[in-house]
Structures are given as C-alpha cells and as structure tokens.
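Is this the right way to post structure tokens for a design question? Let me know if I should format differently. Anyway, here goes:
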C-alpha cells in the first residue's frame, strides 16, 4: 500500500508513475482517494471539535448546577439559554452562557425541566458524535479499499517501456549445449521415461494436473532439498509453513484484492491455499515492531503453491510449465530501506547461483515498468534455457517491494535510540520454482537414447545415481 501522504501531496506525480505501469484503472482511483481522504479528514475534524465542545459543556453544566453564587432563577435561565444555543450549534455561546460570561435573563420556570432539556441537548451532541464516527468508519473503509487497488510505484532505475516484449535481457550465462540429435521436449521425454504421467493426473484432478512417478518424484524431492541447502548456506533460515492462511494474510502480502480470482478458498474454514510461500512469510511479523539490530532477516520455505491459472491456448498448456499446483522454494528478506536495493542484487544472485550449480544456461531479465506487476518497485527474472521446448523458462522472480507489503501488514522496526518506528522493506525471490527446473534438466541433460543424465550436484541426494533411464 502506498503512503496516503504521498498521494495527498503529489497526486499528479503519483499518476505519472502509475501511467508507466499501464494501469489506467488505478489512475482513475487516485481522484476518488483524494475525495475520500478529504471527506474523512473533514468528518474527523468536525467530530473532534464537537467532542471537545461537549466535554467542556458537560463540565460546565456540573459547575452551573453547583454554583452557590447564582440563585435558581439565574441557573434556570442559563440552562434554558445554553440549551437553545446548543440546539442551534452555537457551542461557544453555550459555553460562555454556562460559565456566566454572557448575559441572560433569569427564568422563574421549572429548574428541573430546564436542566433535563440541557442534558437532552448534550445527549443529542453525543448521538451526533457517534453518528459521525460511524460515517467516518464507512468512509475510511471505502478509502482503504481504493488504496488496496493502487499498485506500487516503480523505482527510478526501472526502464520505462510498455510490455514484457521490452524486458532487458542480460547476456546469458552457461554453455548452450550443441546436440547431435533432435532434442525432445519434456512432454515427450517424461512419458517415454515413465517419470511424468499426464493422463492419470488429468483423470484425478482435471486439466493442468500431472503425476510425477519414480525418478520424476525423486528428482523433484532432490531439487527441493538442494534449493533449501543452497539457501541455508547463504544465511537463510529454513521454515516449515502453514499451507492455509486467513484472508488478512492475503491482503497483507498484496495478493488481495487484485488477485482474489486466482486463489483456492475453503469457504467452511474461511482459509486460502497458498499461491506462494511469500504470503505466509510476509505476515510472520504482522503488527510487530522489530529491533533494527536484528535486520536483515533472511528466510526460506518450501511449499506447494496453488493457483487458478487462466485458460490459454498454445505452448503454455503443454507439459508442466503452467499448472494449478506446483512446488516452489521461496527466499524472503526483511531489511532496512537503506540496504534493500543491495539486498535485491544479492537475492537475485542467490537464485542465479542455483542455475550455475546445476550447469544449465540461464539469463537475467531486467523487468520494465509495463511488466513490473502489482507490488514490486524493481524486479529481475531468472530464466533457464529449455532446448527441447525451444524457449526461456522463468524459474525465479526477485522483487523489492520496499514498504508496500509492510505498510499493509504493519511490519515496522526501530533502532535503540529511535523515538519513532518506520516500515521495513521486504524482498522475495523464487529459489527456485520446481516444475520448470525439472523441464530444464530433462531437456538440457537428455541423451540420444532418451535417458537423462542427473546433474552432479543432485547425485548425493539420489544415492549417487547418474542417469535416469526407462523403467
């Protein structure tokens, strides 16, 4: 979530930044946010003024009743006159009347009735104050909903272009293998080796589900362990996380409301299946103030991820590239604002180091504004080359969200000598997404006879096995 003060002070600049993201609907919301913010502040000011007057009037009523220097007629006259002033919203006049600094005529009427009328007027002020608070809460809820739809703003270093076609590809690393045979795609290799079963996966759960069998399942498990070990060696603390979270956690990590339509929900328990471990890790320190001396904090978690991938045609529907259920190892950082961009570089390198260890060709993509996404201020993708599919596969996205998630989840930090807390910066990056790495291994390490060589770094996790052959 953005800082409302930024929108209030620089609305045109904020709109210009959002235009770089090609999010016209968010631009339209800025004026609505300004309108609601002004309305909220106006209501709050009115309520606070009303309460201040009421508090003073309540005190003065007690003083008036107990004032021994006034006779009953004067007290009654002042009660009647103050009531009339309150009913006409002339609160300063009412205060002056009750304090005795304003002249009024004595009243020989019923003293009790006069004070009952004054009490009723003060009670009506309380009712009006309560109504104002309810109205303010309604406006604030509407304002928050509008704010939740505003994307994060791009960092000044992000290239300004319209679409993913303009993403800046760095020079690929690793040796591109030259085959003396026609390399196969994984959707052919997997079934022929008996390690991917598409038909039975679809029979169990429908389209975009699959079964990994034998060496496929073992290789999948080995990759997860290898990724976790790589991250631990770089200082990340391993986590075992819940796979179901409450709605507020989805909002805190910036998944809701924008991506509500792509998650799976258990309505009876009112819990949501993780679309990514990022959701759970972000909210670990929800509503907490961290000690600056403990930052940065590094965490890594292996979870399944569940997403309602939208229907599409073409290459994406083949194989295990884009599916509803997959496993991912997620790296996550809580940092101070001063260090977050250096931390983004080291996070991206941590993902790249896994590719290097697997000896699979890869490249870094610098993501442009038009493809930046909702919560990132700056993002890099890591892509592995898949020679059978003949495409670059995104296996990691590394993002700095600055204080965008922390502001939603109220995650702050404070130094030992600081009077005020401030928001942490949060970063996330896949380390890595498993299905696409499986694809890259199968297609890069395939041999002419259909077997697949196991990368050296994975062999200790597989009992020393070197080659996957047909069962």
């Amino acid at each position: 979530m953005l800082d409302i003060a930024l929108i209030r002070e620089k609305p045109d600049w904020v709109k210009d930044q959002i235009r770089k993201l090609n999010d016209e609907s968010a631009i339209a919301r800025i004026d609505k946010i300004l309108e609601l913010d002004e309305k909220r502040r106006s209501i709050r000011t009115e309520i606070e003024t009303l309460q201040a007057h009421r508090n003073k009037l309540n005190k003065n009523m007690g003083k008036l009743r107990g004032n021994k220097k006034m006779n009953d007629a004067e007290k009654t006259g002042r009660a009647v006159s103050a009531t009339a002033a309150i009913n006409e919203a002339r609160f300063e006049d009412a205060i002056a009347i009750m304090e005795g600094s304003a002249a009024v005529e004595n009243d020989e009427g019923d003293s009790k009735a006069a004070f009952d009328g004054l009490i009723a007027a003060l009670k009506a002020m309380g009712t009006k104050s309560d109504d104002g608070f309810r109205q303010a809460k309604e406006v604030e809820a509407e304002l928050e909903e509008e704010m939740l739809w505003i994307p994060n703003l791009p960092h000044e270093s992000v290239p300004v272009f319209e679409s993913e076609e303009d993403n800046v590809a760095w020079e690929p690393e690793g040796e591109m293998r030259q085959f003396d045979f026609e390399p196969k795609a994984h959707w052919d290799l997997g079934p022929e080796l008996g390690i991917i079963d598409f038909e039975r996966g679809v029979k169990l759960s429908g389209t975009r589900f699959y079964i990994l069998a034998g060496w496929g399942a073992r290789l999948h498990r080995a990759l997860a362990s290898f990724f976790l070990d790589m991250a631990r060696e770089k200082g990340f603390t391993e986590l075992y996380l819940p796979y179901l979270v409450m709605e507020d956690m989805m909002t805190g990590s910036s998944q809701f409301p924008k991506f509500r339509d792509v998650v799976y929900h258990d309505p009876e328990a009112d819990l949501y299946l993780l679309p990514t471990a990022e959701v759970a890790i972000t909210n670990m320190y929800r509503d907490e103030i961290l000690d600056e001396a403990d930052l940065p904090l590094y965490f890594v978690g292996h979870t399944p991820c569940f997403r309602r991938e939208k229907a599409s045609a073409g290459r994406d529907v083949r194989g295990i590239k884009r599916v509803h259920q997959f496993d991912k190892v997620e790296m996550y950082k809580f940092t101070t604002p001063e260090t977050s961009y250096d931390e983004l570089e080291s996070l991206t390198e941590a993902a790249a180091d896994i590719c290097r260890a697997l000896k699979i060709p890869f490249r870094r993509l610098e993501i442009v504004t038009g493809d930046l996404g909702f919560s990132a201020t700056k993002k890099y993708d890591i892509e592995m080359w898949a020679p059978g599919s003949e495409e670059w596969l995104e296996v990691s996205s590394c993002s700095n969200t600055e204080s965008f998630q922390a502001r939603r989840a109220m995650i702050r930090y404070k130094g030992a000598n600081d009077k005020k807390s401030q928001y942490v910066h949060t970063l996330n990056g896949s380390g890595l997404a498993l299905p696409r790495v499986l694809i890259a291994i199968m297609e890069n390490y395939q041999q002419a006879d259909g077997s697949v060589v196991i990368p050296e770094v994975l062999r200790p996790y597989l009992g020393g096995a070197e080659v996957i052959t047909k069962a």
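Format looks fine. Someone answered above. Worth noting: The chain has two domains: 4-148, 164-468. The two ends are 52 Å apart (CA to CA).
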